[in-house]
Amino acid sequence: MSLFSSGKQRRGKQIAANYYPKSIGLSLPGNSFDYEFLICGKNVPYTQNQIVNQFIGHGAMLISLDSSADPLENRFILSICCNLEHADTGPTELAVQLQEMKFVTSAEYCEIRGRLFGRRLAGISFNSRDAAVALRAGSMISLGRRLARESGSIGTAVLYEEGRAYAHEIMEDLWEILQQGPETGFADDQKLDVPPEKPEEAYCMRCRAMRRIQSPRQVLFSNKTHALQGECIICSTKVFKIGSKIYGKIRTSPLIENTQALLMATGWGTFELFGAIEGRSGEVLISSPPTLDEDIQFGNQFVEGIAAGLLEAASGTRNRMVVVGEKYDQSTRNLRLHFAEEIPVRKRAKVRALNVQRSGTISDGSSRSITPEDELDKIIGALEKIESGVTSFDSEPIEAKKDTGESEQQIII
Are the beta carbons of 106 and 40 closer than 8 angstroms? Predict the structure, then answer.
């Protein structure tokens, strides 16, 4: 697994982002009075408090502090970088005093003069389980550009799929950890915070009446006005409903909440998930995502894949989610991604037949009426002929294409 930093952070934007990014390494090289202490011991109550008080009591100025505890082995590891210029003791005497504490098993120190990083702590990990590495956000975006330049859409698609797999792997690891702790109240079915509303309606110019919007989708006009766009359920004329939205914030489970917290802690940004009240679509709002020179540029497919994987798990869909639109606001540092569910053609045929069933029987131009069941059989039969290599105008089968191992054709609706 990998951990990626969020790149440059403007000082004025840190408070607005509502969280403080953790810095790896010191901001300036250490001087001749700067030391790093590594203390290990038994994890009993108030032990680490006593160690920190020992430093403060001797007049040491703390530069950085990092602590981790292992409840299974009942031990802690405490790393303290401090300045002893105005302290009343030296590093050797301080280390001896720490070792004399009955709960301390070892205490070491080293000088960090002229360095930005300590020598004792090597590497970072997720939840004390999975090793990770740090990578600049610019390097990740450059990788996406290079894949697009050398491999075209295939390269960017691979990066997108890796992002989806990354999100699912995170959730699998967190699920194992949550299972070991107290009951989390995890629910399999995710719902929207916004209660279900009555079907959206818009005025149809052909019918001269208010009609239900079929297959609604969110659109944004050039004047920043939101609207629903769809078709009249009676005559299939394109209709609009100005100022309406179909997205409601998804009520998440502890698993999704922990995944969002991990993504924020590892520099990917703050993810907010929105699902469609009606229709197969969703939206992900990412605050302070990884950027290159404070701007989202081509090469962020990995982030899009992470958002897709998270939205798939939160919405409970069994199909892939694909990006159908994105917008980045540089002033607020918000990236808004629009997704649509990708479903097999067989399933799409059933959906179309159900829409026919809602509107009643249809006519084929003759005196008889075609029932929704006949329409469904007709669509599925045509699809089976296409897949078997038989055309509608020739009863002789044509030469089937070699099996390439590809999955069933996918269509976005």
Answer: yes
* Beta-carbon count within 10 A of 211 CB: 21
* CB of 152 closer than 8 Å to CB of 22: no
Mean pLDDT throughout 57-66? 91
A 10 A CB-CB count for 270 gives 17
In terms of pTM, does the model score above 0.70?
no
Cα–Cα distance between 349 and 413 in angstroms, integer? Answer: 11
Question: Start-end ranges of CATH 3.30.70.260 in the chain?
Answer: 3-135
Residue-wise pLDDT for 6-15, tens only, equals 444 443 444 3
Q: Is 333 helix (H, G, I), strand (E, B) or coil?
A: coil
On whether the 3-135 domain is CATH 3.30.70.260, my answer is yes
Per the structure block, which two tokens stand in for 183? 């009951």
Distance CA 63, CA 111 (A): 13
Q: For residue 303, what are its two tokens?
A: 């982030």
86-108: pLDDT as tens digits: 999 999 999 999 999 999 999 99
